[in-house]
Design a protein that fits this description.
Elements lengths: L15 E7 L6 H8 L3 E6 L14 E5 L1 H8 L15 H6 L4 E5 L3 E2 L11 H10 L34 E10 L5 H6 L7 H4 L4 E3 L12 E5 H4 L18 H16 L2 E11 L5 H23 L10 H15 L6 H19 L15 E2 L1
Helix pairs in contact: 8-10, 10-11
GO biological process, one term: UDP-L-arabinose metabolic process
Protein name: UDP-arabinopyranose mutase
Organism: Deinandra increscens subsp. villosa
Length: 366
Amino acid sequence: MSPPETAVTPPSTDEVDIVIPTIRNLDFLEQWRPFFQPYHLIIVQDGDPSIEIRVPDGYDYELYNRNDIDRILGPKSSCISFKDGACRCFGFLVSKKKYIFTIDDDCFVAKDPNGQEINALAQHIHNLSTPSTPFFFNTLYDPYRAGADFVRGYPFSLREGVPTAISHGLWLNIPDYDAPTQLVKPRERNTRSSRYVDAVMTIPKGTLFPMCAMNLAFDRELIGPAMYFGLMGEGHPIGRYDDMWAGWCAKVTCDHLGLGVKTGLPYLSHSKASNPFVNLKKEYKGLFWQEELIPFFQNVTLPKECTTAQQCYIELSKLVKEKLVTIDPYFEKLSDAMVTWIDAWNELNPSTDGGAMVEVRPSKHK
């Protein structure tokens, strides 16, 4: 039998860290074992650090709880959210691999329409290791996929493409809806037969998108400093916008630096619908604020002198403080946290010409 469309070569174990935020035992990893076991896991434990998280035997992992984050970052730990999935970005800080794949603990292996299990990690790294085409849309989607190419009329001068920084995957079963949509469509499901689209496409330059972190990979070397998930959860007036914020910031950074963002394959199966009433309480302010935040990002212009993700992000922090504080004082705190995040990134990831490496030790590893 010929291999399915979703069959791609697994990446090297030296290239990838898998980052998982959690408050519970990671039994879901048993289903992912054929695809994840060879790789290193970075687990970021949210909530009570005294609770022991069980990880299935056979996995190579580091586990960091809030005590570890405070010990490693010191005062800079204020930029890492508590009691919110945004804590995952601490794993991005401490990784030393080229690629990050981050996944939620209620996501399982999906099957394609042929019934073949999808290796989401391998598809993400394939997306990241092939170019993007943000400057001109190809109507056959990803021209670098087997069996595809550039269509007639596509400029030859743009066919080389640009490096891909972000690969955004999708979900079968439970859709990633906001609370109001959950309430009006409580039984809606994405099924393999009706909702599976066998395609990967580049999001055009100048176009924003709602980035979901439950099935996401990125090139840490290209865009890692811009993948900050903001101040969310306990002590802050908003939640469930951590990945949205990171997506908006990262996309305008990619556009400025000439990097690509892909969306589409791979799919995974999202198994658990969160409580829409709890979600509404978390999202309430964000549902209003996004109507002003999105035009802000659509009109962002970064100086040509910004040639790295760090420089872009510092400039974004200045614009956030200048333009968004009128919406709510929260954005002044967020702007300051963006600067703290970059300080922490530079401290834990010193350039080759510079500082000493900070020792990072998890509370638990195997």
